[in-house]
TrEMBL record:
<dbReference type="InterPro" id="IPR051021">
    <property type="entry name" value="Mito_Ser/Thr_phosphatase"/>
</dbReference>
<keyword id="KW-0378">Hydrolase</keyword>
<dbReference type="InterPro" id="IPR004449">
    <property type="entry name" value="SixA"/>
</dbReference>
<dbReference type="InterPro" id="IPR029033">
    <property type="entry name" value="His_PPase_superfam"/>
</dbReference>
<dbReference type="Pfam" id="PF00300">
    <property type="entry name" value="His_Phos_1"/>
</dbReference>
<dbReference type="InterPro" id="IPR013078">
    <property type="entry name" value="His_Pase_superF_clade-1"/>
</dbReference>
<protein>
    <submittedName>
        <fullName>Phosphohistidine phosphatase, SixA</fullName>
    </submittedName>
</protein>
């Protein structure tokens, strides 16, 4: 059994012409750091799949800076306009290719984070606050998932 953690980036600067270049606000940096401490205490991810957009990269960096990762990849399939089925298929392929990794952290954006949860566990499409993490159990032998919960920076205990 594997664990998939799907995380929305922290709070970002307002919309601008170059959406990919939006940065985290100080609040977004705090959200990512807080969730990183929570992840390190409760899940210890060993693999990371992150959107190329700056705010997602910054979130991943803040959330994993004290977590040793066995695998890390930037993935263009998990941008805001990514295709959820393609992203899910790719994630499942990576999980199969890296059996040493038991806990996968995916850092991306709305709406694709909600769609990813639904692709993995049909009928579950949570709305993510900034910095929130959805927890999914994934049985790689059956390629079946079970959505467990969602956690936000303002409701986790470290």
């Amino acid at each position: 059994m594997k664990t998939i953690l799907i995380m929305r980036h922290g709070e970002a600067t307002p919309m601008q012409a170059d959406d990919a270049a939006r940065q985290l606000t100080p609040t977004g940096q705090q959200e990512a750091s807080r969730m990183g401490k929570w992840l390190a205490c409760h899940y210890k991810p060993d693999a990371l799949l992150v959107s190329p957009y700056l705010r997602a990269q910054q979130t991943a960096e803040n959330a994993t800076h004290n977590i040793p990762l066995l695998y890390k990849e930037t993935c263009r399939d998990i941008t805001p306009d990514g295709v959820p089925q393609v992203a899910t298929d790719y994630l499942e392929t990576l999980i199969a290719m890296h059996p040493q990794c038991n806990t996968w952290l995916v850092v991306a954006h709305m709406p694709i984070v909600s769609y990813l949860v639904d692709q993995l566990s049909p009928g579950n499409m949570p709305i993510f606050n900034t910095g929130a993490v959805a927890v999914i159990e994934y049985d790689e032998t059956k390629q079946r998932s079970h959505y467990l919960s969602i956690h936000s920076p303002n409701n986790v205990e470290i």
